Amino acid sequence: MKHLVTYLIGLIFGLGISIGGMANPAKVVNFFDVAGTWDPSLIFVMGGALVTTFIGYRFVFGRWTAPAFGETFSLPTNRKLDKRLIGGAAVFGVGWGIAGFCPGGALPALGTGSFDVIIFCIALIAGILAAKFLSTKSAKSAA
């Protein structure tokens, strides 16, 4: 049952990204092109996601003490803005602006079989592995 629910949530997310046009890198790049062919639709997609998330969190945490398929909610405890968080956010934003894909838009777009999407996802995985390697190396040298 847990896998079915996970699949359905992913399917709804992927459909939302696709219907909203966010699987199209040109639409995302045009959002960042404020001096040219600016397309504000990304603001509405993100705004809708934020409103839905806000309401969902209030609903879930107001009624339940644990998730339906787990023992406890897994929530972040670190609330500090540090160099790693800010640097990672900056790299993410630059990559998003250059490629026109964020992971949320690229994964549903993998179904198109587009070479650009496949290359982006390979680069995404390589970046995750490189960051993990550097983080492990940094932790070892600090100890």
From TrEMBL:
* Keywords per UniProt: Membrane, Transmembrane, Transmembrane helix
Give TM segment ranges.
Answer: 41-64, 85-107, 113-134
Q: What is this protein called?
A: Sulphur transport domain-containing protein
Which organism is the protein's source? Pacificibacter maritimus
